[in-house]
Amino acid sequence: MVLAQGERHGYAIMKQVEIDSGGRVKMGPGTLYGSLKRMLEAGLVQESDRRDPEDERRVYYRITAAGQKALDAELQRYREVVALANRTPRLHGEAYAT
Amino acid sequence: MRRDERHRARFARLIRLYPQEFRDQFASAMEQTFADMYADRQASGRSMRTFLAMTYLDTSIGVVKEHIVNGMRARPADHPRLAAVSGTLLLLPFVGLNLVVVHRIEPIFSLIRRGTHTGPLEYILLVVSLLALPFGAAIALAPVLPAIRERRKIPLLNTTVAALLVAVFVPLAVGFGEEVVRCDLLQIKGCD
Hints:
heterodimer; A: alpha+beta; Arc Repressor Mutant, subunit A; 3 helices; elongated; B: mainly alpha; 9 helices
């Protein structure tokens, strides 16, 4: 989701995840690069050609078309779950009629 | 050595524990990320100890996870020794079953044989453990065929394990098959 906002390097992804989640999700390098590896293998993200002039080791990643499609599908699924919850009286905070 | 350099060196050593392929792809980026995190944390004036503990823990979990993922993806053909060991391990169910039956090891013996004759559960276990033998031989042989095709040195250990498993399987399967035909299909009296 972070990469849908634009290309980012590892640390920038970590910081953006923390900001977007209101500080609830804090990733370490092990979690981040493990996830990136799996997303790269699945073709959801790819390395960008962009390099940081300050440090060549900073690799930028960007979302692919397949990644964007998967993200859209996942967001749609979440919307449907929320819509279903809103239609369900008990989950919506209303008592069942007896 | 300065404290931050010492921590970076320690993190770099931890990264060396990742599988080779993962290291080749991400090691330098991870070191850079750690350096960025370290500098930010230091500038914030918050506890470095908590930061370091959490980062090392997260990375250590990552190391274990990547090795597990790699192990699950490993093809026998790429790891001759692992294939030979896996093939040999498939001999164990048959050996175990025979030990239980011959030495009447309780309570397993009573579980699989309820009465004086071979019961259905014992038959199933026998067939499964027998079929595990050619399966084990196939696993052990998996690295041999690519080696022949690519004209590399044939792994002797794998060939030996496969030959051993086939040598155990063939007479047993023939004997077992013959007994099933005589005793169960033809029901010849006193065939046991």
